[in-house]
Amino acid sequence: MADERFAVILRELQQGVVEYDEQRVRKAARQAVDEGFDAWSAVMDGLAVGMEEVGRFFAANEYFVPEVLMCADALYAGLAILRPHVKADASRRMKGKGAVVIGTVEGDVHDIGKNLVKLMFEIAGFTVYDLGRDVPPEKFVDEVMSTDSDFLCMSAMMTTTMGGMRQVIEKVRAKNPNVKIMVGGAPLTEDLAHRWGADGYGKDAPNALSEALALVGSLRKMTKAAGNQTAGALRVR
């Protein structure tokens, strides 16, 4: 009976996210906590699964950026309730999964794409260091090195600011060639991003979102499978 009850709650979490119903998500999250169900499973098998479905709707042009943002609000409403109840071992798995430094380059204050990509990494259990907007190149480099992060994500929406990405990539590669770097923004091209040494590219907020949403399913499965491994084996390289 307990398994059946938890399945109902998970379904409510999933559908609440898909239907961007914050009240529904909060109610289901509180039920999971009050009835003693595993908060980590509620996040990964409830909220994250719902966001995977949102990704499919987005890819099929059934949802657009505004709907995805509302779904994200619903998901965060559930996370706010569930995260304090995640058990210590699950918390270590989340932290062991990897770390991401993310921000908008110096001179640029556009951050919709950045915030969407940030959300996807948070759902997948990564530690996210959000540097915000108008970030100097040196700050990106210093943060990546001081946090030993696995990913670096940068965005720029103006031709006058995108050149800062190249500086950051060169400096980060010189110090840690294993960092995975994703860049995005309207003035960029995929060819230019690759010539600068980036591993991933998103043209604009919707394309960056598509790329980030595609990570959710694989990262969720990877995170769940990692529960049987030691924390030291979980670094993403």
Write up this protein:
- It is elongated, with a radius of gyration of 18 Å.
- A 5-stranded parallel β-sheet has the order 2-1-3-4-5, sandwiched between helices.
- The protein has 237 residues and is α/β, with parallel strands linked by helices.
- The chain has helices spanning 2-18, 22-34, 39-59, 65-82, 88-97, 112-123, 137-147, 159-175, 190-195, 205-225; strands spanning 99-104, 127-130, 151-155, 180-184, 200-202.
Short description:
Helices cover 62% and strands 10% of the residues. It has 10 helices and 5 strands.
Secondary-structure topology with pairs:
Layout: H1 2-18, H2 22-34, H3 39-59, H4 65-82, H5 88-97, E1 99-104, H6 112-123, E2 127-130, H7 137-147, E3 151-155, H8 159-175, E4 180-184, H9 190-195, E5 200-202, H10 205-225
Parallel strand pairs: 1-2, 1-3, 3-4, 4-5
Strand/helix succession: HHHHHEHEHEHEHEH
Radius of gyration: 18 Å
Quantity of strands, as a count: 5
Strand order of the largest sheet: 2-1-3-4-5
Keywords, separated by commas or semicolons:
Rossmann fold; 10 helices; about 240 residues; alpha/beta; 2 domains; Methyltransferase, Methionine Synthase (B12-binding Domains), Chain A, domain 1
